[in-house]
Amino acid sequence: MPAAMRRLKQFGWMVAIWAMSVVALGVVAAILRFWLRA
Question: Known Pfam families for this protein (predicted)?
Fold first, then answer.
């Protein structure tokens, strides 16, 4: 059971990092779009 928990925690960290990178890319794209339009 501990091995599964460790694997689940690793997967959770991977998903969290992936989500944060996606959000950061979206924010950068929105700022660039707004900056280029202004």
Answer: DUF2474
CA 10/CA 18 separation, integer angstroms:
12
In one letter, which amino acid is 29? A
Rounded to an integer, what distance in angstroms lies between the CA atom of residue 16 and that of residue 24? 12
Q: What sign has the CA pseudo-torsion 24, 22, 25, 37?
A: negative
- How far apart are the C-alpha atoms of 5 and 15, rounded to whole Å? 15
Whether the predicted model's global pTM rises above the 0.70 cut: no
- As a residue count, the chain comes to 38
